[in-house]
Amino acid sequence: MGKLFGTDGVRGIANKDLSPELAYKLGRVGGYFLTNGIKRPKMVVGLDTRISGDMLEGALSSGLNSAGIDVLYLGILPTPAVACMIKILDADGGVMITASHNPIEYNGIKFFDKDGLKLTDETENLIEEYINNNLDIDYIPISGDLGRKIRVEAPLRKYLDYLKSTINVELNGLKIAVDCGNGAVYKAAPQLLHELGAQVYVIHNEPNGININVDCGSTNPEEIQKLVLETGADVGLSFDGDADRLIAADENGNIVDGDHVLAICGTCLKEKGKLRNNTIVGTVMTNLGLDICLKDKG
Fold first, then answer.
1. What backbone torsions phi and psi does residue 135 show, to the nearest 5 degrees?
2. CATH number, domain at 198?
3. pLDDT category, 160, cuts 50, 70, 90?
């Protein structure tokens, strides 16, 4: 079968490369190694709006249950929400079913550990070894030791309340344009911004299972640029399918990319004395211009 895990979990064309059988094995083997030694473990599971999500979630959850793991089912939520819900619900790990910004025919399975972090290379390699060699875990629970699937009550409300607890800000008077990309953030982003007092203009917030990322979202920034100009918004926010990436636009419809967002937010926090350890964390994609800019700001 070869290499399973890429830079962001296991991905492929759903029902072909990423089959229900593989999803079951990933749930059973991956869940076991993530929670081994924990009595009555539980893991959260969320997904984006792709039509293949239900199929893969059912198979994955069956695999987790077969390893004695309770599934705390979140339904459609952004990827960052799934990571946060591990802490909020005191779970032992989590899984997000998504292919992020990729076309509809793709899907993926992304594991998180008990701290909401991606798996180590060592853990991924161990899971791959078992699946590629058709090995099974040495644990077959029966009767009351099998896992259950438990639907979490109001997961979006829990996530939004957590987000609001981390900030002390109101957005009264601000006009914000949002492109939800027909993805996992289609409820979360508009609702949160509205609750914070903003006037919100929303497009592409009607997912139907096959329109995620189609001519919308962060891979099509011209949509948010147009909406900002049409509505006279102060800022525009455009998300990808699972809302772990963002493209912004200023009040003139100009694109503000991730490096600019880091510079703006980091400088603002530093001026307010709130930049922890005077440090900003970027990615391998962060360019030299941001480094020079931030050094100039101290």
1. -95, 155
2. 3.40.120.10
3. very high
